[in-house]
Design a protein that fits this description.
The complex is a heterodimer of chains A (112) and B (113).
Chain A lengths: L2 E5 L2 E4 L5 E8 L5 E7 L5 E9 L2 E4 L6 E6 L2 E6 L8 E8 L7 E2 L3 E5 L1
Parallel strand pairs in A: 2-11
Antiparallel strand pairs in A: 1-3, 3-8, 4-5, 4-9, 5-6, 7-8, 9-10, 9-11
Chain B lengths: L2 E5 L2 E5 L4 E8 L4 E8 L5 E7 L5 E3 L5 E5 L4 E6 L8 E9 L5 E3 L3 E6 L1
Parallel strand pairs in B: 2-11
Antiparallel strand pairs in B: 1-3, 3-8, 4-5, 4-9, 6-7, 7-8, 9-10, 9-11
The chains are: A mainly beta (112), B mainly beta (113).
Chain lengths: 112, 113
């Protein structure tokens, strides 16, 4: 069966520090991968999605970037965090041309 | 472009009462529609989905939803609320064969004893 791992679960970082959140999927090949952000009291905002290694699509301009160095690995990064980057970050995957997305357990990021 | 509107950011019901969470969507092509549930500090879990076929879809935990194309709606219902149903619920839409799932803003369900 397929599983998705996302870490860390919680993170507190100072303003201006770098960020690296990692997500890996097991049990499937060539998944579509996604990063969502959920800010307090708001819905899920799609940040990035990837349909293959090295292929990243950005949905909104922001202080973040994403990379997909391996087929089942998706990384969310920032060079310098802002206070507004605080939120709950969710990684997800779906099969190519598939239907529903499957979510990781999320990372609670607090920028102080 | 696709979009989802969930009516009511907060819904409160008594235990045993009907749960009705409203969702309207916009899509230029036949949509796939979903309801997800999120418990505090956790990821999202799929409750049910509509792709094609029967418009009344049954999901886990006694929830169901009906796709009404004429009303562009996909409301979520449960006949009798349980305390364990308290969570945040998200309606979502995607295109068949597409890459992106677009979520509504979410509705937090409170269940009173």
């Amino acid at each position: 069966s397929q599983t998705i791992h996302q870490w860390p679960a919680t993170l507190v970082q100072p303003v201006g520090s770098p960020l690296s959140l990692e997500c890996t999927v097991e049990g499937t090949s060539n998944p579509n991968l996604y990063w969502y952000r959920q800010a307090a009291g708001r819905g899920l905002q799609l940040l990035f999605y990837s349909v293959g290694i090295g292929q990243i699509s950005s949905e909104v301009p922001q202080n973040l970037s994403a990379s997909r160095p391996q087929d089942r690995q998706f990384i969310l990064s920032s060079k310098k965090l802002l206070l507004s980057d605080s939120g709950f970050y969710l990684c997800a995957w779906s099969v190519t041309g598939g239907v529903e997305a499957f979510f990781g357990q999320g990372t609670r990021l607090t920028v102080v | 472009a696709q979009s989802v509107t969930q009516l009511g950011s907060h819904v409160s019901v008594s235990e045993g009462a009907l749960v009705l969470l409203r969702c309207n969507y916009s899509s230029s092509v036949p949509p796939y529609l979903f309801w997800y549930v999120q418990y505090p500090n956790q990821g999202l879990q799929l409750l049910l989905k509509y792709t094609t076929g029967a418009t009344l879809v049954k999901g886990i935990n006694g929830f169901e939803a009906e796709f009404k194309k004429s009303e562009t709606s996909f409301h979520l219902t449960k006949p009798s609320a349980h305390m364990s149903d308290a969570a945040e619920y998200f309606c979502a839409v995607s295109e068949a064969g597409g890459f992106k799932t677009i979520f509504g803003a979410g509705t937090r369900l409170f269940v009173k004893a």
